[in-house]
Amino acid sequence: MIPRYQTVLFFILLVASLVMGAVLWQLLDRHHQRLLGGEDSAPTQAPQVTPAQPATLLVANDADNTLTAQVQSLPLPQSPSDRARAVLNKLLALYAAPGAAHPLPGGANGVAQVFLLPATGSGDPRHPDAELAVVNLTGAFATSHPSGLETETLTILSICATLHANLPRVTQVRFLVDGQQRPTLAGHADLTRTYLAADAAPTEGTAR
């Protein structure tokens, strides 16, 4: 004869199993209805796309040692530092392209970061909020840069002028390589000094 407590325990387990089965059936049925209705639990909001904006690039030309303003439409971040980096890497990407007027084989993504700091000792009342841009170049870019005073100087001036064209408050520029100070870019252009953006004015009109 089966003890009474075992009979009671059997019926409790049976009822619990039936309840769990019913709940599981309802969950499966709801999921099936979602699939039939085309519902998806994944986010349906499209990723936000940064709108394209005009950016002025001061493009160097080795043939006549000039800088020419070239306006391009680029997706630019909101942060001024990120915006500066995006514009400069676009400029260096032009130099890395085949047939570039100022060829730099390692130009693409040659700028790791751009830091914007208050400029000191500017002494210009027209720019009370002047900024110093610290451009951190990658070691790969500096190592692959062609050596020569003119070509190195054009690279430096085009970077300075492009920064000032897109961030007018930038009046001074300094350079680092992999976060460290480096004597020259590729043996000639001085990277220990502070460059003035006014010294990098374009010598040509705007080209589109």
Describe the structure.
This protein has 208 residues and is α/β, with parallel strands linked by helices. It is built from four helices and seven strands; from the N terminus they run H-E-E-H-E-E-H-H-E-E-E. The chain folds into two domains: 1-39; 52-207, no CATH class. The strands form two sheets. It has a four-stranded mixed sheet. Strands 1-2-7 form a three-stranded mixed sheet. It starts with a helix and ends with a strand.
Uncertain segments: 203-208
Structural class: alpha/beta
Query: Strand order across the biggest sheet?
Result: 3-4-5-6
* Principal-axis shape: elongated
**Arithmetic mean of pLDDT:** 84
Order of helices and strands: HEEHEEHHEEE
The end-to-end span amounts to 99 Å
Query: Which range does the strand content fall in?
Result: 15-25%
How many domain regions?
2
Largest sheet features: 4 strands, mixed
Write the layout of secondary structure elements.
Blueprint: H1 4-36, E1 52-61, E2 66-75, H2 80-96, E3 111-118, E4 131-137, H3 139-144, H4 149-166, E5 170-177, E6 195-196, E7 206-207
